[in-house]
Amino acid sequence: MGRLTGFNYRRITKRLKHFGFVFDRQAAGSHEIWFNEHTNRYTTIPNHPGDMPEGTLRAILKQANIDPEDFLKKK
C-alpha cells in the first residue's frame, strides 16, 4: 500500500481547499468539479463513501497539478 491510501472524500477536499480549490459544480452522478481560480485548473472528485483508491487520488492530484508530497504535508 502506498502513502496515498486511507483518504476519504472529506479529507481530500479539506486538503484541496488549502491549495485554493473550491466546489464549482455537480457533475454526472456523485462526481463533483472543483476549481482553482489562481491556477485556472479543474479537477473531478468522486463523492463516494469509504476510502478513495490510490490511483484515483493520484489522478485527482495530477489534474490539479499538485505534487503528492505537497498534498501529504498539508493537514
Topology:
Blueprint: H1 9-18, E1 21-26, E2 31-36, E3 41-46, H2 54-64, H3 68-73
Antiparallel strand pairs: 1-2, 2-3
Task: Give start-end ranges of low-pLDDT stretches.
Answer: none
Strand ordering within the main sheet? 1-2-3
Q: How many discrete structural domains?
A: 1
Number of helices: 3
Derived from helix and strand composition plus strand pairing, the structural class reads alpha+beta
Question: N- to C-terminal separation?
Answer: 21 Å
Shape: globular
CATH domain fold name: Metal Transport, Frataxin, Chain A
Let me know the largest β-sheet: 3 strands, antiparallel
CATH superfamily: Hypothetical protein
Number of DSSP-assigned strands? 3
User: Based on the structure given, which CATH architecture is correct?
Assistant: 2-Layer Sandwich
- Spell out the helices and strands N to C: HEEEHH
Any idea what the radius of gyration is?
11 Å
Annotation keywords:
75 residues; alpha+beta; Metal Transport, Frataxin, Chain A; 24% strand; globular
Put the structure in a nutshell:
A hairpin with a 4-residue loop joins β2 and β3 (41-46). The chain has helices at residues 9-18, 54-64, 68-73, and strands at residues 21-26, 31-36, 41-46.
Polypeptide structure, described:
The structure is a single chain. The protein is an alpha+beta fold and 75 residues long. It has a single domain (9-73), classed as 2-Layer Sandwich (Metal Transport, Frataxin, Chain A), CATH 3.30.920. Helices cover 36% and strands 24% of the residues. A 3-stranded antiparallel β-sheet has the order 1-2-3.
